[in-house]
Amino acid sequence: MDQYQLVMDCLDRLGIETELVEHPPAYTTEEADRYIEGIPGVRTKSMFLTNKKKTAYYLVIMDDQKRLDMEKLTDLLATTRLRMASTNSLKEKLGIEPGSVSIFGLLNNRERDVQVFLDKEILSEDRMSFHPNDNTKTVFLSTIDMLDFIENQGYSYQVIDL
Fold it and tell me: What residue stretches are annotated with the YbaK/aminoacyl-tRNA synthetase-associated domain (predicted)?
């Protein structure tokens, strides 16, 4: 089953309503924003990070207009030498390719060893958008449904102030 269908089947099973926008491949948030302009909802930036020894993995979700302060995030996560995870780690842990990172990659994390962090700023929004493990599509869903999705996958999440 392809990654997009895996996501949509899960959302259907959970009774989560979505709005789908199909578009050409978008590898950056700037590219994706051009295709979803005018649709209500916060545009998210999803980053898959690891520590230097690759003993901990982090999925950080924030507003795509915000710039990540890696030093501040390192302090908030109480870790050292935080960096973007490699393409191999992304494929191994979330089963997806670069440019497709989102909460939906959690569906593929068999070890359930990815820690989820949400910037508190986005939680005040009613809706948000993510690639459904496929960067040729963007899915909008309610913030409440996004939180339910995370918990339904067996994850907890922490809210941080980025």
Answer: 23-149
Query: Residue 148: phi, psi to the nearest 5?
Result: -60, -40
CA distance 35 to 57: 30
Spans of the chain, pLDDT less than 50? none
Q: Which residue has the tokens 């890696």?
A: 70
Residue range 23-63, pLDDT digits in tens: 999 888 888 888 898 999 999 999 999 998 899 999 999 99
Contact criterion met (CB below 8 Å) for 38 and 158: no
Handedness of CA 120, 61, 47, 107 (dihedral sign): positive
Residue listed under structure tokens 């068999």 = 110
Are the C-beta atoms of 61 and 103 separated by less than 8 Å?
yes
